[in-house]
Amino acid sequence: MTFKEAIQQGIPAILPAPKPYESEINHAPKRKEILTEEEKKLALKNALRYFEPQHHATLLPEFKEELEKYGRIYMYRFRPDYKMYARDINEYPGNSLQAKAIMMMIQNNLDYAVAQHPHELITYGGNGAVFSNWAQYLLTMKYLSEMTDEQTLTMYSGHPMGLFPSHKNAPRVVVTNGMMIPNYSKPDDWEKFNALGVTQYGQMTAGSYMYIGPQGIVHGTTITVLNGFRKIGKEPKGNLFVTSGLGGMSGAQPKAGTIAGCITVCAEVNPKITKIRHEQGWIHEVIQDLDELVTRVKKAQENKEVVSIAYLGNVVDVWEKFDTENIHIDLGSDQTSLHNPWAGGYYPAGISFEDANEMMANQPELFKEKVQETLRLHAAAINKHTAKGTYFFDYGNAFLLEASRAGAVVMNPNPTLGREFKYPSYVQDIMGPMCFDYGFGPFRWVCASNNPEDLQKTDDIACQVLEEMIKTSPEEIQQQMKDNIQWIRGAQENKLVVGSQARILYADAEGRTNIAKAFNDAIKSGKIGPVVLGRDHHDVSGTDSPYRETSNIYDGSRFTADMAIQNVIGDSFRGATWVSIHNGGGVGWGEVINGGFGMLLDGTPEAEQRLKSMLFWDVNNGISRRSWARNEGAIFAIQRAMEAEPLLKVTLPNIVSDDLLM
C-alpha cells in the first residue's frame, strides 16, 4: 500500500497486527487511575465505537489492558506503518490544497523528532495532544483527503465529527479542545474525561497543528532572556541564567540562552529527553554531579563563556548548591510543566525519576505531597538567591501559582491588584510592555514544499521586508525591529529547524502583513512553493491567561476570556484556513482560554485578500483590548493602526487622575 493509499484508507477494514511496545521511544507516564468500574466500561464502549462490531471481541481485551496499564486507550495497534514527518504538500492525496496543508502540519506535530511522546500522540507539555488515540488520527486524515473547498471538518477535542457543507471562504477545519462547562475544569476533571475519551488537552499549538518544534519557543525565550538582561542593566555574556525543563517547549531554553549570549544551566530529570536535546545540539554539555557543575559554572563565569549546560537531576538541588557555593545567578526562572503537576509535569526532589513515575501512578496522593514539598523547597532556595540580587521571573508555567497552593513563600508582602505574587510573570515586566502592547508577537511560517531552499528564500524575503520597514518605523518599536532582523540573519546559522521547514519571528500587524504579502507574491511568480502561516497562541490577541499572556492587564479584566473567543470568531470569517480554541494551554486546565489559526498562501489574489483582512484583525483585536486597559504602549499602537486604516475605529480610554481618587 502506498502512502496515499494508506491515508485514504482511514481505519482499516482488516485489523493490522498488534504492534510491540517500543521502550526506546519517550513515552507518556502512566496516568493515575481515576475511573470507576462503570466508567471504565464506558471508556471501552467509547473507544470501540470507532470500529465495526466484528472487531470488538478482538480489540476489547487489548483496549482494556491499555486502560489498566497506561490509564488511557491509545490504540497502539493502529499506529501507521509509514514514517511520520511533514512531507512536500504535493505528496498528500486530496481535492483541496488547504486540506493537504493541514495534513502536513498534523504529521509534523507527530514527527518523532518533534513530538515529546509520539506514540501517545502528545506533542509537548506532557499532555498536549494532537489526538487522543490513533483511530482519530486515521479518520481525520481520511476526511482531509476527501474534503473539497466547499466543506469544513469539525474537530471535537481530537474527534473528527465529520465533514459539513460550507463554502470556499470558510475555514476548512474548526478545532475545539477541552471546552468544558466551567464547573468541570479542574485538573481531575481532565484526567477523568480524557480517560473516558471525550475531551483532550490541546496545549496551545499541539491540538491546533501549529507546533514547529522547539524553534517556536526558542525565539520567544531568546527575546525574553535578552530583555531580561536589559531590564537588570547587564550584558548576557559571562552572566548566568538558571532554569529547568528540557521537554517539548522548555527544551528551547538552553538554545535561546546561547543565542542571547549567556551561560545557561538547565536542569532536567528525564535522561531520555536530556540525551535527545544533547544529540540535537540544543545543549552543549551534560553534567550529573553537582560539584562538577559548580566547577564548570565558575570557570564559565571567569572566562565569560557562552555555553549551555544540562544538569541531569532536580533543579532544587542546583538552586540550593549554588546558594551554599555563593555562585551568583543573574536571571532565574523555571519552565517545567506545572500546568500538569500531578502527571509528570514536575518531579519531586530526593526521588529517582523511575521511582517518581511509579509513585505517580500507584500512590498519587503521596506523589502530590512530595511535589508540593519540593515546590516549597524550590521557592525557599529561589528566595535566598533573590535576596542576593538575582532577578527571578515566572515563565508562565504556573510555577508561582502551584507554589502558592503548596504553601510556599511566594506571595507579595504588599500585594496590589495584578501584583499578588512576590515575583512578576515574564509577561508583566518583559514581554507584555515591551512586545505585546505594541502588537509584536510570534508570527510563524512553514514552507509547504518541505524544501530547505524555500526556507532560505523566505528568510531572505522577511529580512528584506524588515530592513525596509525599520527605515521609517517609530522610535518606540525600533528595538523590536532590530531584534527581529538580528534573529532572521542568524536563523540559518543556529540550525533551528526540527521537523518542518519552519521559521518564527516577532512581528506586529504591519510586519506580518508585509511579509505575508511578499511571500504570496513570491509564490505567484514561482520563486517558492506554498507557505502556511500561523502563530503561537502565546500572542497579543490569542490568549486570555491571567497569570501569563494577560498578566499585564490591570483593569480587572484579566480573568475574562472575551478576547480569545472574539479572536477565533474574527479569524474564521476573515480568511483563516483553520481556527482553534482551547481550554488549558500552557498554564493549566481551567486556567486559560487560547485561540489560534493556520492560513495557506498559494499565490492567488484571494490569498492576498485573506491575509490582509485576517492578520490585521488578529493583532489589533488584542491591541485594542490592551489599550482599553490603559496600557500606554497599546494606546500608542492602536492610534497608529487607526491612522493607517480609516475603517478602524476603536474606543480609547480616558485616564483618571490618581489624585482625584485619594
TrEMBL record:
Coiled coil: none annotated. Its cofactor is NAD(+). Residues 213-430 form the Urocanase Rossmann-like domain. Gene3D superfamilies: Urocanase like domains, Urocanase superfamily. GO terms for biological process: L-histidine catabolic process to glutamate and formamide; L-histidine catabolic process to glutamate and formate. Its EC number is 4.2.1.49. Its main location: cytoplasm. Signal peptide: none annotated. PANTHER family: UROCANATE HYDRATASE. HAMAP family: HutU. This is Urocanate hydratase. It comes from Paenimyroides tangerinum.
